[in-house]
C-alpha cells in the first residue's frame, strides 16, 4: 500500500535513509550523504503533500517524492517533450526489503499519480554510480536522456524520462 507521508513517519524514513546512505557509500556512490537529503527536506515534502510511503505489514519500507519541481540542471538536456511533467525525487527502499517489487511499485505509483493529474510525462535522475536505480528505471521503460552535474557532486547524474500512453 502507498499513502501520503505524515510527519510521524519521519523517524522511520530517516532510519531507511541511513541504511541506504551506508549502502551507497560502500560502493563509493555519494549521491546522498549527511548534507542531502536531511529530515528537513522530507518534512517540507510532507508539508507540501509530495512525499509518499510504501507500507508493508504496518512498516514503512520505501518512500518517494513526486512534484513538478524541475532542477535547473535539467535545462539544456534533450528531453523529448516540453509538456508539463511530474518529477520523481528522493526515492528509496529499505535495504532489508530489496527485490520485493517496492521500487517498481513506487515508480508505478508515480505514473498512476501522473495519469490522475492529467500529466503524461515523467522525469527523474540518479547518480551515474547508482546501478540499482538505473536498472529500475530501465525495467520500468524509462528512456535515458543524458547526463548532467549537480554542484558539489563529483560524478555525473543520469537523467531519464517516460512519456505515458493514454
Task: Please provide a brief summary of the model.
With 166 residues, the chain is an alpha+beta fold. 30% of the residues lie in helices and 28% in strands.
- What's the total helix number? 4
Low-confidence segments, given as residue ranges, are none
CATH superfamily, called what? Gcn5-related N-acetyltransferase (GNAT)
User: What is the share of helical residues?
Assistant: 25-40%
Query: How far apart are the termini?
Result: 24 Å
Rg from alpha-carbon coordinates:
15 Å
Report the CATH architecture. 3-Layer(aba) Sandwich
State the shape: globular
The CATH top-level class label? Alpha Beta
Strand order of the largest sheet: 1-2-3-4-5-7-6
Tell me the structural class.
Answer: alpha+beta
Q: What is the name of the CATH topology?
A: Aminopeptidase
Q: What's the number of extended β-strand segments?
A: 7
Q: DSSP strand (E) fraction?
A: 25-35%
What's the pLDDT, averaged over the residues?
A: 95
How does the major sheet shape up? Answer: 7 strands, mixed
**What pattern of helices and strands is seen along the backbone?**
EHHEEEHEHEE
How many domains is the backbone divided into?
A: 1
Structural description of this entry:
- It is a single chain.
- By secondary structure, the chain is of the alpha+beta class.
- The chain has helices spanning 10-26, 39-47, 102-116, 131-139; strands at 2-4, 51-56, 59-67, 86-93, 121-127, 143-148, 157-163.
- A seven-stranded mixed β-sheet has the order 1-2-3-4-5-7-6.
- The protein is globular, with a radius of gyration of 15 Å.
- The relative contact order is 0.17.
